[in-house]
From TrEMBL:
Any one Gene Ontology BP term: microtubule-based movement
Alphabetically ordered keywords of this record: Motor protein
Protein name as it appears in the record: Kinesin motor domain-containing protein
Domain Kinesin motor: 1-19
Superkingdom of this protein's organism: Eukaryota
Organism name: Nymphaea colorata (pocket water lily)
Amino acid sequence: DSLGGNSKTTIIANISPSS
């Protein structure tokens, strides 16, 4: 859960540089 969630979060953040 931690690994999968982290991976998805990282990918999303990389695609949408809004943070």
